[in-house]
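Please decode residue identities from the backbone states below.
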């Protein structure tokens, strides 16, 4: 990695400011002053600014309790974004790991670790997504069996993977799915002749939404939560 990029990633300095302090002779690699911003940094080398050693920022992992009306994208000209609710350095490097529709609430995972994001969202991953679903019409007696078999979504050629539901009351249930097709939960119940009135995701793989988080709040994931995504 270039020296100026390394410094920018490890500190609050912009690339422009990093180049300036390097050219001013304020940066040393392994105790030797370096004035070339394009100098490459090896993993075993030490970088110091005016004698203070800096280190590359670690990858970041967060969970958010996404409120309704917020979109799961980095930028949007018309709606507030999940990233926009966060006050984090280099927020432009953060990625949404498994999006939620604008009116869907609950567990949203955010990271700048692309490999972790891929493990989480890959079709080959074994990360179940669990939702609480509110339906406009009462739950049909055949829903559990139909979902366990796999329903055919409009416009699709193949059945969804088997899903598991547990009924809460006449109109509410929890649903566990292993896929992440576009508007999948809503389309699944549309295929069964019903309409999703409310949708809240509370678990992805081994990560469960922290009940202390108010809508719009977020926190870093614990080491155990991060490691649960294999």
């Amino acid at each position: 990695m270039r020296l100026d990029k390394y410094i920018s990633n490890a500190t609050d300095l912009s690339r422009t400011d990093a180049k300036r302090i390097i050219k001013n002779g304020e940066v040393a690699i392994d105790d030797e002053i370096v004035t070339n911003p394009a100098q490459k940094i090896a993993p075993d080398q030490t970088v110091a600014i005016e004698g203070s050693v800096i280190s590359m920022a670690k990858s970041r992992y967060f969970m958010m309790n996404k409120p309704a009306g917020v979109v799961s994208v980095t930028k949007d000209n018309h709606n507030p974004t999940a990233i926009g609710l966060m006050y984090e350095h280099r927020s432009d490097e953060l990625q949404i790991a498994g999006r939620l529709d604008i009116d869907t609430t609950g567990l949203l995972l955010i990271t700048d670790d692309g490999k972790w994001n891929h493990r989480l969202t890959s079709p080959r991953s074994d990360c179940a997504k669990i939702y609480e679903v509110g339906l406009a019409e009462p739950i049909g007696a055949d829903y559990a069996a139909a979902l366990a078999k796999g329903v055919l979504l409009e416009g699709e050629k193949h059945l969804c993977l088997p899903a598991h539901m547990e009924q809460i009351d006449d109109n509410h249930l929890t649903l566990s799915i292993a896929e992440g097709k576009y508007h999948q939960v809503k389309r699944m119940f549309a295929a069964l002749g019903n309409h999703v009135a409310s949708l809240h995701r509370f678990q992805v793989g081994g990560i469960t939404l922290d009940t202390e988080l108010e809508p719009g709040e977020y926190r870093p994931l614990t080491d155990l939560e991060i490691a649960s995504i294999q």
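Observation: The longest strand covers residues 196-204.
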